[in-house]
Amino acid sequence: MNKKETAEIKKNFSDKSGFFIMEKILTAFVDADKNLRYHNINSCLTMPVEEHEVYDETLKKVLNTNVGKSFIEYEFPNEAYEEGKAQDILYKLLKSELKDEEAAENFLHHIANNITYAGPFAVITAYCCYTIRAKDKMDEYSEAEDEVYRYILTAICPVNTGSDGFVFDSFNNEITKKLNTELIISKAPSDGFLYPVFSNRSSDVNHVMYYTKSASKPNISIVEDVLGCTFVMSAENEKASFQSILKGVVGDDLDYMLIKTVNEKIQEVVEENKNDTDKTVIDNTKLKTILSESGVPEERLEMLEPVYEKTCGTASLTASNLVETKTVLTSPGITVNIKPSAADKVRTSVVDGRRCLLIDIDDPTIEINGLPVTLN
Q1: Which of 189, 200, 212, 313 has the maximum number of C-beta atoms within 10 A of its C-beta?
Q2: CA-CA-CA-CA torsion for 53, 182, 218, 82, nearest 10 degrees?
Q3: pLDDT at 304 over 80
């Protein structure tokens, strides 16, 4: 799924859209020891409005349009459709329309038995139908027969007892310590997934979308052990891999200007492709062009292919994950944060035999610890 497809499903994730129906909700509670303590299936058609709205709010967070970072598509391996495997379990749950108790229990036990999770959690799964209005080649709505996209959307939410503190007891007119023993289910899921994916405005049962609240710390066990897919690098890992490649290729020639220039050129790539629905990637060939245009000598560029292959194999890197929104210079006891607009005002040089960081200051008045100081 790309950004446009995700946005279409998210936009229509409401009874008000006229093309969407959430038919049933499966809820479950798994304790800290991974025991399935409770599960239930409710009809959304007879559910109180206030309760329905909470489920809508929680599940809609899984449909994150930050595709490639927080919402990532995975392909099932061939064996995933075998009896009792991840794709088989999800497909049977989908076909049951949450009407089969056995399919629901198998799904929940599969999650509880395979997930790595700190503490208790709740599972909220909805069976939904979205009527896809047919479009012609000009992307205009046509009179052709509409298709129905049927999918299950799952949110995995942490459960805790809330924070301790003090409350005012209006009955006794006193301040007392708050005692909260109720298990509160967070409305902000830590993880989730959508199955099947919505691709080319149709259903694709061979792929699944995984959501993580923390793009830098995804729950790998959900991807590999619950969904049965091969985990791909997180945004944080992609950036670390890119930095490793840069150090391996450029080595001691790395300096402020080169790092700044490479970052700017990757930003240009992202900006040029900002309207593309698919994520923009940097592969071995594209990176070689960027480094060449940044002034890296040919003898260094010859090292790129083996270094890249050793670090990333044949995988491409997501361009937006590599961009630094600010430059941070660090040295023992010193940290300097530089916004992109001021990057040209900073340079490194050797002055009287000492390596220095030089900052051009247009206005002679600066602030130090919030106090104005004039530089003469």
Answers
A1: 212
A2: -80
A3: yes
Instruction: Scan for tokens 């003469």, then name that residue.
Output: 376
Q: Are 22 and 128 in contact (CB under 8 A)?
A: yes
Rounded Cα gap, residues 135 and 147, in angstroms: 11
Give the number of other CB atoms < 10 A from CB of residue 171: 5
Place of tokens 């909470």: 54
Mean pLDDT of 157-165: 76
The position carrying tokens 């919030």 is 370
Predicted confidence (pLDDT) per residue in 230-271, tens digit: 887 777 888 889 999 999 999 888 888 899 899 999 999 999
**For the chain, what percent of residues have pLDDT higher than 90?**
55
Q: Mapping DSSP to helix (H, G, I), strand (E, B) and coil, where does residue 151 land?
A: strand
Q: Is the dihedral of CA 110, 112, 113, 115 positive or negative?
A: positive
348 residue type, one letter: T
> How far is 8 from 14, CA to CA, in rounded Å?
11
8 Å CB contact between 321 and 70: no
DSSP bridge partners of 330: 335
CB atoms within 10 A of CB 352: 5
Q: Which of 126-130, 138-142, 164-168 has the lowest mean pLDDT?
A: 138-142
**Residue 355 or residue 99, greater confidence:** 99
Cβ contact 36:108 at 8 Å:
yes
Mean pLDDT of 80-95: 93
From residue 259, give the alpha-carbon distance in Å to each of 254, 295, 322, 338: 7, 11, 12, 13
Widest Cα–Cα separation across the chain: 80
pLDDT value of position 251: 87
CA distance to 24, 58, 111, 234, per residue, from 115 (Å): 24, 20, 6, 18
Contact in structure between 255 and 348 (CB atoms under 8 Å): yes
Contacts with 368 (C-beta within 8 Å, 6 or more apart), sequence order: none
